Amino acid sequence: MSAEPQAGRCLCGNVRFEIDGPVSAGSICHCGQCRRQGGHVWASAQAPRESFAISGDVQWYAASDTATRGFCPRCGSFLFWHGAGEAEMSFSLGALEEPTGIRVEKHIFCASKGDYFEIGEDGGARKP
Ligand SMILES: [Zn+2]
Fold first, then answer.
1. Could you tell me the distance, in angstroms and rounded to a whole number, from the CA of residue 118 to the centre of ligand 1?
2. Tens digit of each residue's pLDDT, the chain (128 residues)
3. Which H/E stretch holds residue 37?
């Protein structure tokens, strides 16, 4: 958990966001939806939805009945994931300005990971 305020943006700068609230530890998601949308895994953390200040156009995509995914319609950066009815929203760690003070603590949906790599003990991809 980090109490430091965070700021982030998409690749082109159209979407900018600030978070003024407690931020969870990070996780790396290997699910098929994150894999396809992000091109590999998705590193994110969560914060209360009301603590986000978002500017710019966000395209929200309902990838399922249970969640929507927010991205920049201009550059395509995948920035947000929100579960229906959840008080917290996940955001992309890669979009943040550094230093973040956030550490990744777990991998999730590992059974759905791409077959082209192995999850290393250090959290990174390991060479075969
Ligand atoms: Zn953009």
1. 31
2. 777 899 999 999 999 999 998 999 999 999 999 999 999 999 999 999 999 999 999 999 998 999 999 999 999 999 999 999 999 999 999 999 999 999 999 999 999 999 999 987 555 555 55
3. helix 32-38
Cα separation, 12 vs 75, in Å, equals: 6
Contacts of 34 (CB under 8 A, 6+ apart): 41, 42, 78, 81, 109
Ligand 1 centre and the CA of 128: distance in Å?
A: 35
Give rounded-to-5 percent helix, strand, coil for the chain: 10, 40, 45
| Structural domains present in the chain | 6-114 (2.170.150.70)
CA 6 to ligand 1 center in whole angstroms: 18
